[in-house]
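User: For my dataset I need records formatted as: sequence, then structure tokens, nothing else. Please produce one.
Assistant:
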Amino acid sequence: MLARPQEISNTKQVHPSVTSKAKRLMDIVGALVGLAITTLVAIPVAIANRFDDQGPLLYSQIRCGLNGKTFRIWKFRSMVKDADRLKHLVHNEAKGNIFKNRNDPRITRVGRFLRKTSLDELPQFWNVLKGEMSLVGTRPPTVDEVMKYERHHFQRLVVKPGITGEWQANGRSTVEDFEQIVQMDIAYQEKWSVAYDFILILKTIKAVLVKDGAF
């Protein structure tokens, strides 16, 4: 558990989405379908990487999930090897406890395509199947981001992180202010229902297909 206990204790301990059997069933079904797609996509991505920078196919990072519990998230690698060590050399164009740069030089040619199409996110279906994530939730923050949280930011951690969520479906990478993301995450918690999750999934699929707000 990474998040400070006294901060978590000041938020709602159990959000209805966490204990919803219907949401978990949707997660399992979606994860199984998603992993089947991931397996098919992995082959051409691996071949493309072979001709690009010959690094590993997958990238993993420790993120913070429900109530601050850490887990290892998986993605198709979109940056050069050891990109995390080079982060301090790249200017952060976002505001607050997130990091974004539209022309991040660490992104590979294959990685730029993966991010534009959101294909880099596909391996996270494994995290969903394991129960560490959900199809829909909040953006899973990094450890260093959570270490800088103010009291009201911890409200984000009372639901499982999701592959998609309020800000991905309604803005994606165009939202560059962390406080706005927090507001959207909290609004999601207040509006949550299984039906609303389904709506956000459909909106995310539409945004991905038209490449709306991605970079």
